[in-house]
Structures are given as structure tokens and as C-alpha cells.
Amino acid sequence: MTDIRIRKVEGSYVIRAGGAVLGESKDVLELSEGKRAPVLYFPRNDIAMAFLDRSETATHCPHKGDASYFSIITKSKTIADAAWSYETPIANVERIKEYLAFADSDEVAIEKF
User: Fold this and answer.
1) Burial class of residue 73, CB neighbours in 10 A (0-12, 13-18, 19+)
2) Sign of the alpha-carbon dihedral angle for 30, 31, 34, 35
3) Vertex 44, ends 38 and 49: CA angle to 5°?
4) Number of structural domains, the chain?
5) What CATH number is associated with residue 44?
6) Is the pLDDT of residue 1 over 60?
7) 64: helix, strand or coil
8) What pTM value is reported for the model?
9) Which long-range contacts (CB under 8 A, 24 or more apart) does 109-112 make?
10) Using CA atoms, how far apart are residues 85 and 70, in angstroms rounded to an integer?
11) CA distance 86 to 68
12) What backbone phi and psi angles, to 5 degrees, belong to 11?
């Protein structure tokens, strides 16, 4: 069994893509899984869901459940599968239900402010 820890992080975070702010939140969760880099999860209520389009992509993690993916629609392009959500997570990680994670990349910035 992989060691998974979920904790609320201090401070406020913003997510930007294509020059637009996708969301700001003070209720961000950090999920640490084994030796992988921690991943930040943002409440859906703090995200401008109009910028996200559910994609066909889905994956399964034996430790978290089935993930659904979203592409980010910006003025100039679509960033494919840039966010994901565990909509029915496995019991030990149910805190991430109704949260979204974003791939931190050259096109998507996650910043603490």
C-alpha cells in the first residue's frame, strides 16, 4: 500500500493559463503519495469551470480511484488534459472529492500569493 497523506496547505494559491486566472483559493489540499512530488488540489467552487472542458481521458489509480480529465480552453489554444479530478475517490482519500488538480507546466502556472 502506498503511503498517501492529505493536508490543508497554508496561504492562498492562484492558477493561471493563457493569461487568465482560472481560480484562487485558500482551501487548497496537498496530496503526498510515496516518493512522488506532492500535488495540490483546488476546490471546484474556487475554479472558473467555464474554462474547463471534460475530455475523453480517464485513468485508474489503485490508491485513489478513477480520474476524469479536463482540458483548459484559453483564448489562443486548448491545453489538453491539464486538470484531473477523482469524482468518486477510494475511501482513504475521500477528502479530494470535489477537488481538481492541475499539471504545473509552461502553460499552466500554480502560484502561492
Assistant:
1) middle
2) negative
3) 115
4) 1
5) 2.170.150.40
6) no
7) coil
8) 0.94
9) 109/15, 109/16, 109/17, 110/13, 110/14, 110/15, 110/40, 111/13, 111/14, 111/16, 112/11, 112/12, 112/13
10) 8
11) 6
12) 95, -175
First to last CA, the chain: 35
pLDDT digits (tens, 9 = 90+) for 96-113: 999 999 998 899 999 998
To which residue does cell 475521500 refer? 94
In this structure, the number of other CB atoms found within 10 A of the CB of residue 34 comes to 10
Residue 88 cell numbers, joined: 468518486
Domain holding 60, by residue range, is 4-112
Give me 18's grid cell.
493563457
Cell numbers 500569493 correspond to: 113
Helix (H/G/I), strand (E/B), else coil: 47: strand
| SS3 category, 12 | coil
The residues pairing with 5 across neighbouring beta strands, listed in sequence order, are 32
Decide the pairing of beta strands 13-17 and 20-25. antiparallel
DSSP-assigned letter for residue 106: S
